[in-house]
Input
Amino acid sequence: MGEEMNDRIRDFLRCRRDEGPILVVDKSIVRENYLAFAKSLPDTRVFYAVKANPDPAILEMLTQLGSCFDCASIGEIEMVLAAGATADRISYGNTIKKERDIAKAFEKGIRLYAVDCEVEVEKIARAAPGSKVFCRILCDGKDAEWPLSRKFGCEAEIAPRVLEHAHRLGLKAYGVSFHVGSQQRNTEMWDGALASSAWIFREMAERGINLSMVNLGGGFATKYLKEIPAVESYSSAIFRALRKHFGNNIPETIIEPGRGMVGNAGIIEAEVVLISKKSDKQEDPRWVYLDIGKFHGLAETMDEAIRYPIRTRHDHAEKVPCVLAGPTCDSVDVMYEKEPYMLPFSLEIGDKVLIEGTGAYTTTYSSRDFNGMPGLRQIVI
Ligand SMILES: *Cc1c(COP(=O)(O)O)cnc(C)c1O
Output
């Protein structure tokens, strides 16, 4: 996947006449990604994590392909309903919800909710009576390039108490969820979380409550600079872990890919605004400033976590270490500095650069009107 598949985007950009940074997403690559997940995990339902890229054209296509959706807010739920999906294909997967929003979701027909504590269970019991809930457990996000550790989930030891509380309040204690960390290139990371999940299933069975579902979360990687496992490597590692921990009683499973669904489907075209040196010292790196930065879509360069492949028209030329920065008047608007980025010496002001693998987590992270700059525009082709 990748190179030749992005030809449609490159052709589109060659004909482009307007100005400013833009993300172009090729829907046919999203379709390939969806079909790859569906094929390699045939018994698992796919819930696309809407926050990765909520463009209506993407949501409509995934709806037609049969995808379900992981939503974090009423806004996302409304976008998915507007794309034509029915409420039974939506999970309200955020563990942090206002009770008013739970009531609104319930009114729209949503019956599947994430929790990670007893207080949230009580909100759901009041605002969405009888619904299914799954308990998110903590994962340390080890080995992930964009870990989601600590904020969501409870220790596995207290999950049975949370789920039993749900059961007693008339909810359906439905299952367990976790997220091994985003851009997780280690396929073995599902093993430990599935061991905990199986323990919770057994613990609940002893209390006379049978859980049904394990939500395997996201984490499926997009190709940036380093190699990544194929979808089949993830699915076989997951299947092995399910067998190992659940034996012949493999539960219903769902996955929530975000990055892995849309990341490789998008390319951002940006422009070099300035190339300068801050001293006469030979060893000091050049500074290359683009018309896009941390605040207009490249937020995941925070702590230099995600390193995007960047192409220019000089890629055959000699490369030199550069600090890569954005255009705003905020000094944190620097993408790569601790580990400088190698860019062609012949790069010039006004050159276009292509930032690859930017279909996920770019438009949604883009601010509006900071320094009078518009949010990142997107075209889906
Ligand atoms: C963000 C998120 C995802 C998507 O994660 P990726 O690593 O992008 O696949 C899945 N599930 C939940 C609950 C999330 O918050």
Remarks:
- The chain has a mean pLDDT of 96.
